TrEMBL record:
This is Inosine-5'-monophosphate dehydrogenase. It is found in: Cytoplasm. Belongs to the IMPDH/GMPR family. The keyword NAD applies. It comes from Anisodus acutangulus.
Length: 503
C-alpha cells in the first residue's frame, strides 16, 4: 500500500479549492526515455491533435497567424468573435489557405503611387502592385526592397520601375515544397496564392510571401511535429461564437468557411442560452464538433453532456486577466475544477480543455495529469510574434497588449455577449487590460515547452496522456498540497540576482 501523499480522489474531496500551484505530484517509476513520451490527444470526440495545445479565442491572442502556427505545430487555434461576421470569416479563410508555419504581412500599392521611404516596406522584402493598391486578384507587378534602394529618384511612380508579377505558387504547397522550389530556382522570394477551390472568388489572390530568409529562420527552429490537417487537406481551424440569435447567422457563415470545430463561448456555460445553442448546432450541423463551457462543476458538465457536446471547456476566473472570482464571487480553483469535471466527462468519453491559469510547463503537466486532454492558453501565447497587435515599448521593455474578454475595453467592442450581457448600458467588467513581454515566435517556445512537458510525464511514470489518466483514476498518481513555504522552496530562492531562461 502506498502511503506517500494522497490519491486525487481523496485530495480533491476535502472541501478546498486548489490551484495548480497548490498541488505537487510525487514521482513515479521510470522505465522509458523522454523520446518515448507521446502527447497525442483529442480536442473533441472526433478531432485528434499531435500536441495538447489550444490557443484561446481572445482578440489579443488568436487570429490568422496564431491559427496557422498552432496547426503547424500539431495543436489548434480558436478564432475569436469579437469582430464582424465578415472579419471572422476572413480570418478563418486566410488561416485555412496556408500550409506553411507562418503568415507574412502583405503590402500593396497602386501603379501611380510613390514609395518615399524604406519604412513603407516594414518587415517585408517586397510590395505588390495592384490597380487599386489593395489585395485583389490581378497582381500587376511588385517592387523589391533591394531594387528600390538602388533607385536614384525616390519620387518616381511605381509603374515606372516595378517588376513584372512575381513567381507564384499555390498556397497548398507545404514548407518542404516551397523551400525546395526557392532553392532550385535561386529565388529571393515567392508569393503564395489561393488555389482553385470550387467557385471560390478568392482564387488567385495572394495570401502569403515566403523569402529565402524565412526558410533559413524556420530551419533554425526546433523540429515541428505532425501538423493538424483536416479531411480537406487544410490546417485545422476552430472558431468561437456566442449564444445570441445573431450568432446562429454568424455560425452559418463560419461553417461555409470550413471550420473544423466550434466553441460556444460563455464565462458560465450552464445556461438556457447555451443549451439552446447546442441544440441548434446539433440539429443543423450534426457533423460539426461542439465544445461547451465554461464549466467548473460536475453539475454544470452533466447538463451540457446531456445535450451532446463533444468537448468541455473548464475554467472560471482562473485566467491572468480575469476578475470573475473577485467581482462575482463565483468560480473555482483551476486544479480542482479540472479534476472534478474531467472525472465525470471521462465516463462519457468527452475530452476536457483546461482553460486558464497556464503560466509555465509545470501547469500544463498538472492540467493534463488531472484529467484534461488539452490546455487552452491565453497569456502564455500573448506577446508572441503571432499574436494580434503591434509591439510597443514600456519602460524599455518590448510588449504587446493583452486584455481579458471581460474587460470593459473588449466588452465595448462586443464581447459582452460572452458574459450573458444584453443591451443594457450598465456593463460590469470581469477582466482587465494589460501588457505582456515579447516572447518571440510560438514556433520556437512551444516545442521547448512540449519537451518540458514530456520530461514532467517521464518523472510521473506516464508515457502518454492515456497512461497519465490511468495513473490518476487508479490512485497510483499521488499528490500533496504545498504550503506557502514549500512553494517558495520549489522556486528560485536564496539568490541575490539571477536570470531565468527555460530554453
Amino acid at each position: 500500500m502506498n502511503d506517500d501523499g494522497f490519491s486525487a480522489n481523496k485530495l480533491f474531496n476535502q472541501g478546498y479549492s486548489y490551484t495548480y500551484d497548490d498541488v505537487i505530484f510525487l514521482p513515479g517509476y521510470i522505465d522509458f526515455s523522454t523520446d518515448d513520451v507521446t502527447l497525442n490527444t483529442n480536442l473533441t470526440r472526433n478531432i485528434p491533435l499531435s500536441i495538447p495545445c489550444v490557443s484561446s479565442p481572445m482578440d489579443t491572442v488568436t487570429e490568422s497567424s496564431m491559427s496557422v502556427v498552432m496547426a503547424a505545430l500539431g495543436g489548434i487555434g480558436i478564432v475569436h468573435y469579437n469582430n464582424t461576421v465578415s472579419q471572422q470569416s476572413s480570418i478563418i479563410r486566410n488561416a485555412k489557405s496556408h500550409r506553411i508555419p507562418f503568415v507574412s504581412d502583405l503590402l500593396f500599392v497602386s501603379p501611380n503611387d510613390s514609395i518615399h521611404s524604406s519604412n513603407e516596406f516594414g518587415n517585408s522584402h517586397c510590395i505588390f502592385v495592384t490597380e487599386s493598391g489593395k489585395n485583389e486578384l490581378n497582381v500587376l507587378g511588385f517592387v523589391s526592397k533591394s531594387n528600390w534602394e538602388k533607385l536614384s529618384d525616390k519620387e518616381a511612380r511605381v509603374c515606372d520601375y516595378m517588376n513584372n508579377s512575381p513567381v507564384m505558387l499555390p498556397s497548398n504547397y507545404n514548407f518542404e515544397d516551397v523551400a525546395g522550389y526557392i532553392a532550385s530556382k535561386n529565388l529571393e522570394f515567392v508569393a503564395l496564392v489561393n488555389e482553385k477551390d470550387g467557385d471560390d472568388e478568392n482564387e488567385g489572390r495572394v495570401v502569403n510571401l515566403v523569402t529565402s530568409d524565412d526558410l533559413e529562420r524556420i530551419k533554425s527552429l526546433p523540429k515541428l511535429g505532425l501538423p493538424s490537417i483536416g479531411k480537406d487537406g487544410k490546417f485545422l481551424v476552430g472558431a468561437a461564437v456566442g449564444t445570441r440569435e445573431s450568432d446562429k447567422e454568424r455560425l452559418e457563415h463560419l461553417v461555409k468557411e470550413g471550420i473544423d470545430g466550434l466553441v460556444i463561448d460563455s464565462s458560465q456555460g450552464n445556461s438556457e442560452y447555451q443549451i439552446n445553442m447546442i441544440k441548434h448546432v446539433k440539429s443543423n450541423y450534426p457533423n460539426l464538433d461542439v465544445i461547451g463551457g465554461n464549466v467548473v462543476t460536475k453539475y454544470q458538465a452533466e447538463n451540457l453532456i446531456k445535450q451532446g457536446v463533444d468537448g468541455l471547456r473548464v475554467g472560471m476566473g482562473s485566467g491572468s486577466i480575469c476578475t470573475t472570482q473577485e467581482v462575482c464571487a463565483v468560480g473555482r480553483g483551476q486544479a480542482t475544477a479540472v479534476y472534478k469535471v474531467s472525472s465525470i466527462a471521462a465516463q462519457h468519453g468527452v475530452p476536457v480543455i483546461a482553460d486558464g491559469g497556464i503560466s509555465n510547463s509545470g501547469h500544463i503537466v498538472k492540467a493534463l495529469s488531472l484529467g484534461a486532454s488539452t490546455v487552452m492558453m491565453g497569456s502564455f501565447l500573448a506577446g508572441s510574434n503571432e499574436a494580434p497587435g503591434t509591439y510597443v515599448y514600456q519602460n524599455g521593455l518590448r510588449v504587446k497588449k493583452y486584455r481579458g474578454m471581460g474587460s470593459l475595453e473588449a466588452m465595448t467592442k462586443g464581447s459582452d455577449a460572452r458574459y450573458l450581457g444584453d443591451t443594457a448600458k450598465l456593463k460590469i467588467a470581469q477582466g482587465v487590460v494589460g501588457s505582456v513581454a515579447d516572447k518571440g515566435s510560438v514556433l520556437k517556445f512551444v516545442p521547448y515547452t512540449m519537451q518540458a512537458v514530456k520530461q514532467g510525464f517521464q518523472d510521473l511514470g506516464a508515457s502518454s496522456l492515456p497512461s497519465a489518466h490511468e495513473l490518476l483514476r487508479s490512485g497510483t498518481l499521488r499528490l500533496e498540497v504545498r504550503t506557502g513555504a514549500a512553494q517558495v522552496e520549489g522556486g528560485v530562492h536564496g539568490l541575490v540576482d539571477y536570470e531565468k531562461k527555460y530554453f
